[in-house]
Structure formats: C-alpha cells, structure tokens
Amino acid sequence: MKKKLLSTYKNIFSAILSILVLISLCLLLTFALVFPLWKFSTTNPNAYSIIVVSIFVLIFIYFIISRIRKSSVRNTMRVFLKIFIILLSITLLIVFVLQGKRLLAIPVILLTFVAYGITSHFLKNNDKN
Predict the structure, then answer these.
(1) Is the dihedral of CA 17, 23, 25, 31 positive or negative?
(2) Residue ranges of the domains in the chain?
(3) For the whole model, what pTM was predicted?
(4) For residue 78, how many other CB atoms are within 10 A of its CB?
(5) DSSP label at 79?
(6) Do the beta carbons of residue 92 and residue 108 sit within 8 Å?
(7) Within the chain, how many helices (H) and strands (E) appear?
(8) Is the pLDDT of residue 38 over 70?
C-alpha cells in the first residue's frame, strides 16, 4: 500500500515537473527567438523589412517552383500567360490613370476580360492530376 502511494506521488510530481520543464523550455526558446528579432526590427527597421520581405519572396518562389515541377509544360505556360495578362492590364490601368487618361483604362479592362477568356477557352486544362 505504501509503495503504491509513493509510486502515485512520484508519477504526479514527475508529470508536474515535466510540464514545468516544458513550459520553461518554451519560454526560453521564445525569448531566444523573439528578442533578437524585436531588437533588430527596432534598431534597423529598413534592413529588417528588406530581410523579412526577401524571406517571404524566397518561400513564395520555392512553392512556385515546386508546383511547376509537378505540373505539365502546357499547364505551366497557361498559368504564366494568365498571370502575365493580369499584371499587364493592372500596369496599363495604373499608367493610364496616373497620366490622367482614364478613358483609355476602360478598353484595357474590357480587353483584359476578352484576353483572359480566350486564354481560358483555348488553353483548357486537360491534365488529370
């Protein structure tokens, strides 16, 4: 009876100690990661912004490249063509609006829908992934 009671207390204190060690380890690692980032962002915000944006862009490029490797050439070209159409139309819209030629922006919007529709219709996704 006494051994069973001691074993139970030992298990309870072991579990409590494990939880406390885990919490303290999480706090220590959080402080070790967050404090340098906070210090760097407050002392040199421009460099911090450039580094953070660069990391996100690299991650984005990595995911794009991994998706391209899994996809066929036709499907990849179709997606790139659609992205090109959208980016070109946004660029033209911004240029026309900033130059004060707002009426020229209307045909750009219409041509964007037509070009996107033609691209979607003639370059259908026939891949069975």
Answers:
(1) negative
(2) 72-129
(3) 0.48
(4) 19
(5) H
(6) yes
(7) 4, 0
(8) yes
